[in-house]
Specification:
This protein is an alpha/beta fold. The protein has helices at residues 2-32, 60-68, 90-100, 114-123, 143-150, 174-191, 218-228, 249-269, 278-292, 294-308, 313-330, 334-356; strands at 47-53, 77-84, 104-109, 129-134, 138-139, 156-165, 202-205, 232-243.
């Protein structure tokens, strides 16, 4: 009985902490001990923007036009499309733009995944700053300037911008979650460093770039690697990027499963807890490890609630709360469906990872082009 009660309260406490307690604590601490970024809007280092692409013929021309129109000195900016063995017209379309615009170059890579293509592109460019973007994103005209200004701080190695999801016509409630996530990212940045970035808009000083396992992905791996090296990874909310979200919770579930497979690989094999300062270590455990384990925590909470319901009111209330969430999911309440889908995705992803590992290659998420 004691073991069941310990597991019940431990899983309940961990879920409450990662979803509510930690965000509130981070927000409160950030107000009292903010580490400001020493930005300099006047600096203009050379920048190589890298777009990893796999079968992006629907959006690649728009992506290039958007980057070429950025408010940044043309002679200090070049764009490389690292095509991961695209089999559609992606390469042809990029070469057509490159023929009239010398700042654009195609790098035709063997199929090896996004990170492998990005690594090769970094090795074959020379900008003082390397910036990265997804093919289906667009940037605000001043986005690159905003990123670069943050990198003027000698402590900052990595900066990610703010991804604004365009209104979805379907049922996906990623936008609501994403606003919460961005707020939390801002609090972490004010405390020192973010625990995760996003692939749509980020940049590093070339001297700080590190090559990681191609299966890991930059979003999670690069921030903690920067901190392990004694540097900062920060968030610049004024650097805006725009993307179309997946149209349904079902499509988002499939995307999250693929994403969490990579997260489990990094968590279990990426040495992400090694050599971190105490405050940042607490953030990684609270925001990342417990969040990725939320599905397992929910299963433990449900099982112990069922077992303990006859012996106490708290356990019955917890069971009723979980049944109400599942009922809302069955009734197709959008936010409940989103939460249950994403939580279950952590379990499905772990099962997939343990069965077959995780591939380095990727495909575009449904409905985001």
């Amino acid at each position: 009985m004691l073991a069941l009660k310990t597991l019940f309260w431990g899983s309940l406490g961990a879920l409450a902490w990662t979803h509510v307690g930690y965000p509130l604590a981070a927000g409160a601490l950030a107000r009292g001990r903010e580490r400001r970024v020493a930005k300099d809007a006047s600096i203009q280092p050379t920048v190589s923007v890298i777009v990893a692409a796999y079968n992006e013929e629907a959006v690649i021309e728009r992506r290039l036009e958007n980057l070429l129109a950025l408010d940044y000195p043309a002679d200090r900016l070049d764009v490389v499309v690292a095509s991961d063995a695209s089999s559609d017209r992606t390469n042809e379309l990029v070469e057509a733009v490159a023929a009239r615009e010398p700042r654009v170059r195609l790098l035709d890579c063997p199929r090896g995944g996004k990170v492998a293509a990005q690594d090769r592109a970094v090795r074959e460019t020379a900008g003082d700053v390397v910036a990265f973007s997804d093919a289906n994103a667009t940037w605000a005209p001043d986005a690159l300037r905003r990123l670069v200004a943050a990198l003027a701080d000698p402590e900052v190695a990595y900066v990610c911008g703010r991804l604004r999801l365009e209104d979805a016509s379907g049922s996906n409630r990623e936008g609501l979650y994403w606003r919460y996530e961005l707020w939390l990212r801002e609090q972490e940045s004010r405390l020192g460093s973010v625990t995760g970035g996003n692939g749509s808009i980020y940049a590093l000083k070339r001297s700080d770039y590190v090559e990681v396992d191609p299966r890991w992905g930059h979003d999670l791996a690069l921030p903690y690697r920067m901190v392990q090296a004694g540097r900062r990874a920060v968030y610049e909310p004024a650097a805006l990027a725009f993307e179309k979200p997946t149209p349904t919770n079902e499509a988002e579930y499939a995307r999250k499963v693929r994403m969490f497979e990579h997260c489990w690989e990094i968590t279990l094999r990426g040495s992400m807890l090694r050599g971190l300062p105490g405050g940042y270590l607490a953030s990684v455990v609270s925001h990342r490890l417990l969040r990725y384990g939320s599905g397992l925590l929910h299963l433990a909470l449900l099982a112990t609630s069922l077992a303990l319901a006859p012996v106490g009111r708290p356990y019955r209330l917890a069971l009723l709360g979980q049944l109400a969430l599942l009922a809302a999911f069955a009734a197709r309440v959008p936010i409940a469906r989103y939460y249950v889908y994403v939580t279950w995705a952590t379990i499905q992803a772990l099962w997939n990872y343990l069965r077959r590992g995780v591939p380095a290659t990727w495909d575009a998420a449904e409905g985001t082009r």
